[in-house]
Structures are given as structure tokens and as C-alpha cells.
Amino acid sequence: MTQPSNFKLLTNETAIALTKKLGLIHTNDSLQCNEIGDGNLNYVFHVTNPDTNKGVIIKQAVPYAKVLGESWPLTLKRAAIEANALIQFGSYCPEFVPKVYYSDEQLAITIMEDLSHLKIARTGLIDGNHFPLLSKHIGEFVAKTAFYTSDFHLEPSAKKEVARNFTNPELCKITEVFIFTDPFFEEHPGEFELELKVAAQTIWNDAELILEVAKLKQCFESEQEALLHGDLHTGSIFASDIETKVIDPEFAFYGPVGFDLGQYIANLLFQAITRPAAEKEEIFTYLQEFLDTFEETYTALWNSDNKSPYSKVDGYLSYVLTKFKSDAYGFAGCELIRRTIGLSHVADLNGIENKETRIAAKTATLKVGAYLIKNRKELNIPTVNEIVKQYTLASYSTL
Ligand code: ADP
Ligand code: MG
User: Which of 15, 35, 327, 379 is the most exposed place for a label (fewest CB within 10 A)?
Assistant: First the structure.
């Protein structure tokens, strides 16, 4: 793969020099810089003025996936895709994304608003923090980005032009392999505890399930409904009790709307599965609010801004929303399974120290995942609530 010859990995010193050169932090004093990336793919430099606490974030891609090693080369173009997606999303809902101050495709960097005053939603939820506006905000974010980038709003030829700029084959391949393929084949297993082998085998041997995953993978690969974030899990969201910001859209591409919906749903479900019974309800409130807000916002945009000659046809909006939701539950099921027996695990599950409790939670996760995939066409949140309770009770009762 050819990479731009003038790519150079930043150091703390060059990150500070660049910030000063661009005049992004006005100071005569010295600035500080730390590399804070806990991510799997990139470096994140936090440049601050210690006197005022003002800062910027410089995110830099490297020509391989940090977590997968240098043997998995990855285009630096993902940095430009991330910067452009943040700008595009920011044009529809600036309140939900960091401001982009500068980007450089050759250096593969994006310089953006420092969000250190917020907490990554996954960490906050695990710590038992409450985020009363999180789901409302993410529901609005997905509805607006999904509607405004679709054929319902853009001229179809203009949409294809945008889609071309967000062609992202290498990052899509990560999803195709690690979400939609490897976890479902015994001969390409990911990493998981030996105690999960039987539950994993139940998945691999379930012909009905495997056929449904094939259909979902096909949907992911071939349907260009809207510009997606592409990795909308709770680790890609910064939140407080009043603010919500979506980061890290390097997987952005034109795909099925249900994928973004499903990633968020699944990552809330890890919490619903792992929390004690009395604390599960809060998560189901988040889930219901998320889908309700998505639907209300999308419906309002459809009624006011839909340019399709068919927009007023009876039943059309309802057909579109029903499809989004059924795809969403299916994709959520794939995410639940891949985070359990695939390559990239989540702290919600892996952070459970007691091994038996962890295995019980993971077993329930696999069962809920399979159920969502197979029953995606007739699901709603109250039913998902019942299923989660039923499977967690069954798994935990064997302890
Ligand atoms: P990756 O693409 O490598 O997964 P992320 O974009 O998820 O990287 O960023 C990794 C970490 O860096 C985040 O979890 C967060 O702690 C920190 N980070 C990223 N962007 C910002 C930001 N704008 N403000 C503050 N911290 C950030
Ligand atoms: Mg990332």
C-alpha cells in the first residue's frame, strides 16, 4: 500500500509546535501534551495550557491498526474520512459533535475540540452514572444524520457524490470480518473463555441463525441508505448530564441506517444484561427513549423536508421506519455476539471480575444476540426487556 511520503508520527513536542503554529491556543506560556489514546487504531494527543486549562485534541491515524498489529495495514485516508464526517454531521447537528479546527490528510490528523470535561458513556454507565439526556440526544443525532444524508433529502445524484467521498472499503472490511463473519464460524474463532465453548457452538450450529446473519451482512454491504457513523457504540460517545458528543466516525460510510441504531442498542444492552435486576429498568428507559426520539425526529423531518414524490403515500414512512428498526435489532444481535466471542471485547462484560458471573453474563449475551437476530422483524423494547430478564435469570441461576 502506498502512503503519503510526508507522513510522520507526531511526538508530544511536535504536537505542541503544531498547535502553536496554528495559533489554536493563544499563549506565550509553555504548553503541555500527553498521548491519551486508549483506542485501538490511532494516537490521541491532548495539548493543554496548564494555566488556563484550555486545550485541543490532535488525533492521528497510523498506517496500520494498533490493535491488530502492523500486519493489518490500514489506509491513512480514514483520518480525512473522520474529519469530513465530523464536519458533515456538524452541519446537521453541531451540538452533538466536537468542532473541527484543522485537518491535514498527509499527516492524517484531525485537530478538534477538547471534550475532557465529559466522560465516555461506556465508562460512565459502568460506574453507575446517570445520563438523562443521552438517549434523546443520540436519537436526534441518528435521525438527523440519517435523514439529511439520504435520498429523501439530497438529490440522488448529489447523494451518490457524497457517498463517493465516504467510500471506506478498509474500515468496512474490519466490520465485515470481525462483526459479520469470524464470530459465526467455528474455524475462525475469536478469543473467549473455554467455558463459553458450548454456547458458542450452539451459535455456529444454528442454521436458521447463520442464514439470518448472512442476510444482515448482505444488507450492510449493499444498502446505501445514509451516511453512517459506522461505530456508534457507547465508547464513541462523550456525555454528561446535560451534554452529549459523538466522536470517532472513522468507519463512516454509506450503509443501512439500522446499523448505527443497532450498535447503540447493543451497547446499552450490555448494561441491561450485566446490571442487577433493580438497575436494569433505567437502561430500558434509555432504549425506549432512544427509539422514540429517533422515530419522532425522523418523522418530523420526513413531514417537513422529504423531497421524494412518494413521501405522502400512505404507509411509506411506516414501511421505512419498520425496516430501520428490524435491521437495528438484527445488527444489535450481531454486535452482542461479536463482542462476546469475537476479537474486540467490551469492559461492560470483561470488567466483571468474578469468573462465574462473567461467564453467566456472556452466556446470556450470546442468547439475547441470537434471539434478536432471529426475531428482529417483530421486536419492540418491552419484548427485548422480557427476553433479557428471562435469559439473564436462566444463566445466573446456574451459578
Ligand atoms: P480510536 O479511533 O483510536 O478508537 P477515539 O477517537 O475513540 O480513538 O479516541 C480514543 C480516546 O481518546 C477516547 O476514548 C478519549 O479518551 C480520547 N479522546 C478522543 N477524542 C477526544 C476529544 N475530542 N476530547 C477529549 N478526549 C478525546
Ligand atoms: Mg476508532
Answer: 35
Handedness of CA 337, 203, 330, 268 (dihedral sign): negative
Torsion angle of the four alpha carbons 351, 355, 358, 363, in this order, in degrees rounded to the nearest 10: 150
**Is the shortest distance between the CB of 112 and ligand 1 below 6 Å?**
yes
Q: Is 42 in the pocket of ligand 1 (CB under 6 A)?
A: yes
What does pLDDT average to in each consecutive run of 10 residues of the chain (399 residues)?
72 96 84 87 93 94 75 86 98 98 96 98 98 98 98 96 96 96 89 94 98 98 98 98 98 98 98 95 98 98 97 98 98 98 95 97 98 98 98 81
12-113 matches 119-396 in fold? no
Q: What is the CATH number of domain 12-113?
A: 3.30.200.20
Say whether pTM exceeds 0.85: yes
The Cα–Cα gap between 330 and 217 comes to: 10
CA 198 to ligand 2 center in whole angstroms: 32
In the chain, what are the domain boundaries? 12-113, 119-396
Q: Are strands 253-255 and 119-120 parallel, antiparallel or unpaired?
A: unpaired
Residue 65 beta carbon below 6 angstroms from any ligand 1 atom: no
Q: Name the packing angle between helices 355-374 and 207-222 (round to 10°).
A: 70
Atom of ligand 1 nearest to the CA of 42: 3
CATH topology of domain 119-396: Aminoglycoside 3'-phosphotransferase; Chain: A, domain 2 (3.90.1200)
37 Cα: distance to centroid of ligand 1 (angstroms): 6
CA of 208 to the centre of ligand 2 (A): 32
Ligand 1 atom closest to 236 (CA):
7
Question: Is the CB of 249 inside a 6 Å radius of any atom of ligand 1?
Answer: no
